[in-house]
Amino acid sequence: MAGRDAVKFAHAQFMSDVAALAPGHWQWSGWLTPKGRVIALFALLKLDDETLWLLLPDFGAGELASQLQRYVFRSKLELKPRDDLDISGTFAAPTRAAGAVFARNGESIELDMGADGGARTLRIDATRAADDPKSQSEWLAFDLAHGLPHLPESQREHWTPQQLSLERLKAFSVKKGCYPGQEIVARTHFLGQAKRGLAALCAAKPIPMEAGVELDGAAIGKVVSATPGEPCFALAVLPLDRGFGALTSAGLGLNDIGLRDGLAR
């Protein structure tokens, strides 16, 4: 996303405070429906005052650009997927990036994706990295353990930012001006009406996506993200005040392992 009005447009459309983000920094952000449901969740990078990059783990760049284009009207900006760039990650400390400050060398960018669970580095450049399913599964498990949900198409437009506990990632603002869904988000925040949030769960075997979660046999929530391997790590939207008892999903016993911190930016 680039152009004279790129930051202004993104600030009006996305749920984070894009205008307050300094060049060379990044933040978690997202795009909501008018009813405050999350369409897409992403990392938003401000390269300069007229250039933003969106790093989309679950949503096609071309599809999102096409949907956003409907709201451009007379704004001076270009929405262009960068199909020439690739994304890779390593479980190692960044060379220069730190926290919300990314490191840039031309069109090669390094992000600090580490948290309490250890160091991680994500790189954006033109070099294609070899696929490593085991490491990709470990990366996903790290994301889920720190409260970063991955939303497949079936989970889009289902959950509010508070139901996904995105305040833990500082992914939305309740103080900036209007954006789609802002009224719902602000009302929930200021009236203290958030009654559901994310729980980090672990099972011995894979849990089907969108499987229900039961407490002592009574349905209380739904799985929104899960790793494919054994053991299985998952995120589910559950009541914040659910009491105690045996958690199960698809006949599997679940352990509530608690969300880890450190991935907020």
Automatic annotation (TrEMBL):
Q: Which UniProt keywords apply?
A: Transit peptide
The record's annotation in InterPro entries points to:
TrmE/GcvT-like (IPR027266), YgfZ/GCV_T_CS (IPR017703), YgfZ/GcvT (IPR045179)
Gene3D superfamilies noted in UniProt:
Probable tRNA modification gtpase trme, domain 1
Enumerate the SUPFAM superfamilies for this protein: Folate-binding domain
Q: Which PANTHER family match?
A: TRANSFERASE CAF17, MITOCHONDRIAL-RELATED (PTHR22602)
**What is the name listed in the Swiss-Prot or TrEMBL entry for this protein?**
Folate-binding protein YgfZ
UniProt keyword Transit peptide present: yes
Biological process per Gene Ontology, one example term: iron-sulfur cluster assembly
